[in-house]
C-alpha cells in the first residue's frame, strides 16, 4: 500500500525496520509514524472502543483527536504523531490500559528555562514568515513545531499556489514554498527552530511548557505568537466514525507526506478548496475518485479546482448530502441524496457507491487554545494565519509578515511602517471566490442556470465555436500562436502574467482578481501553460497547420500514463467530451514538474480543448457543470440505503466517549446551555481530545435548536492543550517507555 511513483514528489524507499502489531511482525520505514506504517501494511482498523466495541481508525492524523490511539510498548499513544521504532510492540487499544509498574523511579531532572523575545508556536507559512520578519530585525525568536520539518500544511501540497507571484510565491507548489522558507529561516542567526517539539500549555506565571523531543522546557518570552494552524471539522451522519472515514487533511498527510496509498476508491464530502484539492491529490497518487458532493448549489472552492476534477473524470454532485456510510467494520459504501432548498434529503434520489474511503472536507476550525490561554493570563499575545482566520496559505503568508512587524513594533524595534498594500492584498487573498463572468457551458446546463454573464472582449478570450477565426485577432493583427484562458472566476491569481517572456498577458483590470487576457506577441514557449495553478491555460499553435492546429495542455497526474501516438479523450473546460485524438508530443517542463502534452485538433474544436479525461466510464458516464445532476448509467448501482436503514444511534458527535446526537439534543432541549454541565451529563468533551472535535459540532446543534451562541457557556480550557506523560514534566529520563 505504498506509493512507488508520483508525478510531483520524489519517491525514496528509506531504511526498513520491523515492528509488531497485535503480535504479528510487519515492516515499516524508519522515522514514519505508527498510523502510516499500519496503513502501508493494509491495516485501517487500529482497535475497538472500550465502550461499545466500535472499530477505530484515524480521523485527523494531526494529533488533534484521539481516534487513532494504540498501545505502544506499554503506553497509550496517538499513532498519528508517534514514530515507530525498531522492534516496537503495538497493540490495539481494546480497553483502558493499565499503568506501567515503575520501581526505583529516578529523581526528577532540572527543568531549563529559555527566554526569547518572541515565542512562535507553529512553523507553517504564517509562523515562518513572522519569524523571518522578526529575525531580520534582530529579534531573538524561538520557533517550535510538532512535526519533523517546518512548513505546516505546505509540505502536503503538490499543487501550484494561487495569489501574487511577486509577494506570496504564486505559481510555486506548496512543497517548494516550504523549502524556500526553511532555507531563509536557516540563514537568520537570531531565529532558533525546535522541531518535533510540542507546546503543551501557557501558564499563569507567563511561561509556556514545551516538550522538546523528550525534554520538558519552560519558555519565558516577552511576546507569544500562536500560528498553530487549524484542525479538521467533523460531520454527524450514520457511519461517520467507521475506519475509512476521515479528514481530507489526514488523507493528504498519508499520501503526500508519507507516500502511503491508503485507498483504492474514495468519495469526498465537501466542495471547498480542501476537498477539491484532496481529490486532485488522490488522482496523482493513482487512486480512483468516485465522486464529490457539495450541499450547496455550487462548490465553495475555486472553480478552476472543480474544473480540473471534472476534466479528469470526477463527477461533482451539487445540492447533495451524505445519507450515511455503511460497512462491516470499515467503510464499504456511501449513500448520498439530492437535497431541497432547506437541505432536507429528497426521497427517491438516493445513490449508493462502493468505496473504501470517505474524506470529510467540510471546513476547518482554528487551533487557538494557546492564544486564548496567553490572553487570559495577561501575556502580550498575537495570533496569525489559520489560528486567527481560516483562509488560503497565501493569505497566511501575508498574515505572518504583517503580524511579525506588529510584534517588532511592540518590542520597540525599528521596523518602520507596515506596507498598506500588504493589508489590502491579505484582504483580497482571504476573500471568497468572486463572480463567474463567463464559462464554456456544457449542453446539459443553460447559461442562466450556470450563472453566466455576457462575455466581453471575445477577440481576446475565446467564448464560442468559430473555427478558430477569433484566435487570429489580437491587438488588430494576426496571431499564429496564442494562449487560451479557461479560467472564468474572479480569484486572486497572476502567475501567468509574470511567466510570459513577452509581457503579452495582462489582467483585464488593475486588480489581482481580474481575469487574464492576451495582447501582443506569443513565442509559443508555453510557460504560461506550465505555470498556471488552475491548469486553465492551453496554447493553440496554427503555425504549421491552420486546419489542424497543435494544442498544448498541462498534465500533472502521471508521467507514464501517456505516450506519443496514444488515443486520449479530449474534454472542454468543464469536462464535456470533444472526441478522441492521438497524442502528438510530450515535453517535461522540468522547472515545476509539469508535463506539456500536445495534440493535433481540428480548428473548430481547438479553442475548446482544456484537458484529458483520466477516469473512464467505469466511474461515470457524464456529468454537468454545477448546479445539476450527475448520471451514472455505466456504474452498476449498489442496493440503495435510505434514512430508515441508518439508525439514529449511529450519529456520533463525541468520538472519544461515543456520545450520540440524540443524547446531546435531549440535554439541550432540557435547557442545558453550559458546555461544562453538558459534559457532566453526557460525558461529551471528556475524552482524550478535550472536546476539540465535538465542541464545534455541539455549538452548531445549539444554533440549530434556536439557541444563540451568546446564550451558551463554552467549556473551560484544560491546562494542557496536548496530552503528555506526567513523568516528563519532571524530566525523568528512564522508565517512561517508548524508548525512554
What fraction strand?
15-25%
Main-sheet strand order equals 29-32-33-36-35-34-37
As a percent range, the share of helical residues equals: 10-25%
CATH homologous group name of the largest domain: FAD/NAD(P)-binding domain
CATH class descriptor of the largest domain:
Alpha Beta
| Beta strands, count | 39
Mean pLDDT across the residues is: 86
Total individual domains = 5
Distance between the termini: 31 Å
Q: What fold name goes in the CATH topology slot of the largest domain?
A: FAD/NAD(P)-binding domain
Low-pLDDT residue intervals, each spanning 5 or more residues:
439-478, 617-639, 641-648
* Count of helix runs: 15
**Assigned CATH architecture of the largest domain:** 3-Layer(bba) Sandwich
What characteristic shape results from the CA principal axes? Answer: globular
Amino acid at each position: 500500500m505504498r506509493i512507488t511513483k508520483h508525478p510531483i514528489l520524489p519517491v525514496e524507499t528509506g531504511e526498513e525496520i520491523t515492528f509488531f502489531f497485535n503480535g504479528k511482525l510487519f515492516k515499516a520505514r524508519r522515522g514514519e509514524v505508527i498510523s502510516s506504517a499500519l496503513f502501508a501494511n493494509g491495516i485501517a482498523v487500529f482497535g475497538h472502543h472500550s465502550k461499545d466495541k466500535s472499530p477505530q481508525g484515524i480521523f485527523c492524523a494531526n494529533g488533534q483527536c484521539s481516534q487513532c490511539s494504540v498501545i505502544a510498548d506499554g503506553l497509550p499513544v496517538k499513532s498519528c504523531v508517534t514514530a515507530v521504532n525498531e522492534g516496537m510492540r503495538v497493540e490495539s487499544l481494546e480497553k483502558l490500559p493499565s499503568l506501567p509498574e515503575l520501581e526505583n523511579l529516578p529523581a526528577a531532572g532540572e527543568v531549563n528555562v529559555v527566554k526569547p523575545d518572541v515565542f512562535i508556536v507553529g512553523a507553517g507559512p504564517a509562523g515562518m514568515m513572522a519569524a523571518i520578519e522578526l529575525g531580520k530585525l534582530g529579534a531573538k525568536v524561538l520557533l517550535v513545531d510538532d512535526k519533523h520539518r517546518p512548513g505546516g500544511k505546505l509540505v502536503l501540497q503538490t499543487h501550484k499556489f494561487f495569489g501574487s507571484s511577486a509577494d506570496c510565491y504564486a505559481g510555486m507548489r506548496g512543497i517548494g514554498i516550504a523549502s524556500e522558507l526553511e532555507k531563509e529561516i536557516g540563514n537568520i542567526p537570531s531565529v532558533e527552530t525546535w522541531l518535533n517539539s510540542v507546546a503543551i500549555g501557557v501558564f499563569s506565571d507567563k511561561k509556556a511548557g514545551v516538550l522538546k523531543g523528550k525534554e520538558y522546557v519552560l519558555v519565558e518570552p516577552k511576546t507569544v505568537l500562536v500560528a498553530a494552524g487549524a484542525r479538521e471539522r467533523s460531520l454527524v451522519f450514520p457511519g461517520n466514525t467507521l475506519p475509512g472515514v476521515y479528514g481530507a487533511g489526514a488523507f493528504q498527510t498519508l499520501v503526500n507526506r508519507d507516500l502511503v496509498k491508503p485507498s483504492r476508491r474514495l468519495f469526498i464530502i465537501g466542495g471547498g478548496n480542501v476537498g477539491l484539492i484532496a481529490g486532485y491529490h488522490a488522482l496523482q497518487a493513482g487512486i480512483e475518485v468516485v465522486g464529490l458532493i457539495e450541499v450547496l448549489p455550487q462548490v465553495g472552492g475555486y472553480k478552476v479546482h472543480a474544473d480540473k476534477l471534472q476534466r479528469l473524470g470526477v463527477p461533482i454532485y451539487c445540492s447533495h448530502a451524505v445519507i450515511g456510510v455503511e460497512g462491516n467494520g470499515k467503510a464499504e459504501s456511501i449513500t448520498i441524496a439530492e437535497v431541497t432548498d432547506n437541505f432536507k434529503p429528497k426521497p427517491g434520489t438516493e445513490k449508493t457507491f462502493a468505496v473504501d474511503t470517505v474524506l470529510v472536507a467540510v471546513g476547518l476550525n482554528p487551533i487557538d487554545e494557546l492564544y486564548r490561554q496567553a490572553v487570559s493570563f495577561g501575556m502580550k499575545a498575537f495570533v496569525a494565519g489559520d489560528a486567527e482566520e481560516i483562509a488560503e496559505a497565501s493569505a497566511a503568508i501575508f498574515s505572518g509578515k504583517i503580524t511579525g512587524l506588529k510584534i517588532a513594533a511592540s518590542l520597540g524595534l525599528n521596523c518602520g511602517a507596515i506596507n498598506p498594500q500588504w493589508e489590502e492584498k491579505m484582504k483580497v487573498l482571504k476573500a471568497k471566490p468572486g463572480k463567474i463572468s463567463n464559462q464554456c457551458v456544457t449542453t446539459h446546463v443553460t447559461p442562466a442556470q450556470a450563472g453566466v454573464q455576457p462575455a466581453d472582449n471575445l477577440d481576446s478570450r475565446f467564448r464560442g465555436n468559430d473555427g478558430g477565426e477569433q484566435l487570429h485577432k489580437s491587438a488588430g493583427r494576426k496571431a499564429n500562436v496564442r494562449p487560451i484562458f479557461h479560467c472564468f472566476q474572479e480569484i486572486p491569481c497572476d502567475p501567468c502574467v509574470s511567466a510570459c517572456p513577452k509581457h503579452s498577458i495582462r489582467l483585464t483590470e488593475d486588480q489581482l482578481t481580474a481575469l487574464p487576457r492576451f495582447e501582443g506577441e506569443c513565442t509559443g514557449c508555453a510557460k504560461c501553460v506550465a505555470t498556471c495553478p488552475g491548469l486553465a491555460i492551453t496554447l493553440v499553435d496554427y503555425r504549421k497547420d491552420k486546419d489542424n492546429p497543435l494544442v498544448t495542455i498541462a498534465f500533472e497526474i502521471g508521467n507514464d500514463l501517456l505516450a506519443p501516438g496514444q488515443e486520449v479523450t479530449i474534454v472542454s473546460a468543464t469536462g464535456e467530451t470533444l472526441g478522441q485524438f492521438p497524442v502528438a508530443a510530450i515535453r517535461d517542463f522540468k522547472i515545476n514538474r509539469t508535463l506539456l502534452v500536445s495534440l493535433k485538433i481540428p480548428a473548430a474544436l481547438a479553442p475548446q480543448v482544456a484537458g484529458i479525461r483520466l477516469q473512464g466510464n467505469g466511474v461515470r458516464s457524464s456529468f454537468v457543470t454545477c448546479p445539476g445532476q450527475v448520471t451514472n448509467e455505466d456504474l452498476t448501482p449498489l442496493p440503495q440505503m435510505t434514512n430508515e436503514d441508518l439508525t439514529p444511534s449511529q450519529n456520533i458527535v463525541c468520538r472519544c466517549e461515543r456520545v450520540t446526537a440524540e443524547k446531546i439534543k435531549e440535554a439541550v432541549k432540557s435547557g442545558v446551555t453550559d458546555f461544562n454541565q453538558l459534559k457532566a451529563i453526557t460525558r461529551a468533551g471528556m475524552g482524550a481530545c478535550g472536546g476539540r472535535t465535538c465542541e464545534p459540532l455541539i455549538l452548531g446543534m445549539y444554533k440549530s435548536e434556536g439557541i444563540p451562541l451568546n446564550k451558551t457557556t463554552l467549556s473551560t480550557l484544560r491546562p494542557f492543550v496536548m496530552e503528555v506523560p506526567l513523568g516528563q514534566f519532571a524530566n525523568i529520563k528512564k522508565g517512561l517507555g517508548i524508548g525512554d
